[in-house]
Design a protein that fits this description.
Layout (H helix, E strand, L loop, with lengths): L2 E5 L2 E4 L4 E8 L8 E6 L6 E6 L5 E3 L7 E6 L4 E6 L8 E8 L6 E4 L3 E6 L1
Parallel strand pairs: 2-11
Antiparallel strand pairs: 1-3, 3-8, 4-5, 4-9, 5-6, 7-8, 9-10, 9-11
Length: 118
């Protein structure tokens, strides 16, 4: 069975950086697209970034030029490098995967909390 496990969340000062990691097991990493989603307190879950099997990336406007999604197939891992963090980035961040390229996310991790202080 497919499992996604996030790590790297924590407390950081505004303007600081964090790097989230997501390790995928139970399925060949190359078979799926990956993404990061987040859910802030009292808000709906939203997409943050996606990366296709071919390395094409997409970002929500609010994180563009600050966050970078990447993947390392040799390590079955997807990353989210977060720079210039803002308090509004505070949320639980979820790793997600699609069973096929450009498809809906149907695999989800349990999330890792990111808290940005002002």
């Amino acid at each position: 069975q497919v499992q996604l496990v996030e790590s790297g969340g924590g407390l950081v000062q505004a303007g600081g950086s964090l790097r989230l990691s997501c390790v995928v097991s139970g399925s060949p990493f190359s078979l799926i697209d990956m993404g990061w989603y987040r859910q802030a307190p009292g808000k709906q879950r939203e997409v943050v970034a996606r990366i296709t099997r071919g390395g094409i990336t997409n970002y929500v406007d609010s994180v563009k030029d600050r966050f970078t999604i990447s993947r390392d197939n040799a390590k079955n891992t997807v990353y989210l490098q977060m720079n210039s963090l803002k308090p509004e980035d505070t949320a639980i961040y979820y790793c997600a995967g699609a069973s096929r390229s450009s498809g809906p996310m149907n695999y989800w991790g349990k999330g890792t909390l990111v808290t940005v202080s002002s």
